[in-house]
Amino acid sequence: MPAGAREPHFVRSFERGLAVIRAFDADHPELTLSEVARVTDLTRAAARRFLLTLFDLGYVQTDGRMFRLTPRVLELGYSYLSSFTLPEIAEPHLEQLVTQIRESSSLCVLDGDDIVYAARVPTHRIMTATITVGSRFPAHVTSVGRVLLAQLPDEEIDTRLSRADLIPLTARTIVSAELLRTELRRVRRQGYAIVDQELEEGLRSVAVPVRDRDGEVVAAVNVPVHASRNSVESVRRDLLPHLLATVARIEADLRITGRARGASRGTGTHR
To answer: Coiled coil where (predicted)?
Structure first.
């Protein structure tokens, strides 16, 4: 096929209509007819027909001279975004976070008394155990688990702690139900959790809850680090702000999709 040629099925008018929509951006929220024609390489007559069609459909508004998109154009992306599962929504943001901080990051959900890894962007191994999507750990000894447990009603927290196997995985593991209750109350107040070498010696981790459009906690995102290279204070000062910003972007996408579907990618939500 010659360079620049299109398949027989190609609808060039549809391509041109999309080009008119893409002519508007953050730097050019309003354009005149002539500007749209120039940006899209259309004649003024063709640009006018496309703009007036978009106006009739409610995707463009005009004062007679300037044209601008309406919020209705968000519908064009809604079906695409709403088909995404929570891990698919989160992964690009986790990738951006990992690039910024050069540490691994994961999205986890609560499944019974465990946390389950639903999405993960690694940099290098810092735990003895190999972590993949679907890996599980006891919720009460992980930062993501404590963030998720802290959002539960006090009565449910008591029930879960009463049946939890509070064994010392390291010398730092909290094995007192009362101390765990106190820690979960603190996590609830401050909005994040830092766990210092309770799951594994040499491992520190910080986590933040992820809320859906209704404000319900549906997951948590963490960043684990080497204790030898990162103090608790440096985790709080240097990593937590990036983590909070990442979660804010994930939550913004969740508000658009309206739901957090298929969070665990096939892992069960009950035990």
So the answer is: none
